[in-house]
Design brief:
The chain has seven helices and 14 strands. The chain has 286 residues and is of the alpha/beta class. The structure holds iron/sulfur cluster (SF4). The site of iron/sulfur cluster has 8 residues, from loops. Iron/sulfur cluster (SF4) binds next to loops.
Length: 286
């Protein structure tokens, strides 16, 4: 909804729908659920109505209901914004089946009309996304629209990255957050499945769950592999080390210990080991 955001890899969020449902282990602590619940109870009716019915409370736990509320009056606001990076549909998933196709079409028309921005799509439904983008942009996705998937480990990568690789886009990217297991980045970069990866450990959200460990060896391996493929345009952005970062010499963390950081999401890079301080933006062909 707003332009400002605390998300380090973007400049603004563009909320054009609310609602979703959990589809992967990475969704366990979905921060958007708590946020949507609060907004649904906002005393300002104009705000509350956009979120009403999207979240339910069962016992002490919140979850999505599966209802998606398109927010039509937000569609055109980006036309007036100064040029910036914009995270699209941060309170839903742009390729959720519950979002009507005609509404999605309107959103993509706005994006196509605004090449002064960089639009960052992020989905856990790239199978739907690949079909849609192929239909909407038969000659390829314009270079100012970056197509991303969210994964937590190699199991997710195997499901999503081969499909992402089929999308005709200059920037195909991956949000590896919360990173919950090792990923074989060498293979995915070799296959040119993606060329920008944002990595992060899990935050402590206002849910009943404890943050899961983030072995910072996984980030180190990603950084090292990305360097090997730099000439292909591969770049990395280390977002945060999460609330439970483990310093370990091996990928299984068997001999690791927890790093004690003051920043609650491990997002202050002054506290990080020096070799992890890598924040590159996506490389765009000129
Ligand atoms: S896909 Fe994204 S918005 Fe939807 S439940 Fe998962 S984390 Fe939340």
């Amino acid at each position: 909804m707003s332009q400002g955001t605390h998300i380090q890899w973007t400049d603004a969020t563009w909320v054009i729908a609310a609602g979703c449902n959990k589809v992967s282990k990475a969704c366990r602590d979905c921060w958007a659920i708590v946020h949507a619940w609060r907004l649904a109870h906002n005393p300002n009716e104009k705000i509350a109505r956009n979120y009403r019915g999207t979240v339910m409370k069962v016992g002490d736990k919140l979850n999505w209901t599966g209802k998606i509320n398109p927010i039509e009056d937000r569609l055109n606001v980006v036309r007036k914004w100064k040029p910036q990076r914009i995270f699209v549909d941060s309170m839903s998933d742009i390729f959720h089946k519950g979002l009507p196709d005609d509404f999605r079409d309107m959103a993509f028309h706005v994006m196509a009309d605004c090449p002064h921005h960089t639009f960052q799509l992020l989905t856990k439904r790239i199978d739907e996304g690949e079909r849609y983008l192929q239909r909407f942009f038969p000659d390829g996705v314009p270079s100012h629209i970056h197509v991303g998937v969210s994964i937590a480990d190699e199991e997710d990568a195997v499901k999503q990255l081969p499909i992402l690789a089929q999308v005709k886009a200059d920037v195909r990217w991956v949000s590896y957050e919360p990173a919950l297991g090792r990923v074989n980045w060498h293979e995915w970069f070799r296959r040119q499945a993606c060329n920008w990866v944002v990595v992060g450990g899990e935050s402590r959200n206002q849910t009943a769950f404890e943050p899961r460990p983030f072995n910072i060896w996984w980030a180190r391996e990603l950084i090292n592999e990305a360097r090997l493929f730099r000439s292909l345009g591969v770049r990395v952005f280390v977002k945060q080390l999460g609330a439970c970062p483990i310093e370990a010499p091996r990928h299984d963390g068997a001999t690791g210990y927890q790093l004690k950081l003051k920043h609650k999401a491990g997002g202050n890079w002054d506290e990080w080991p020096e070799d992890l301080r890598v924040r590159e933006i996506a490389y765009e062909k000129q």
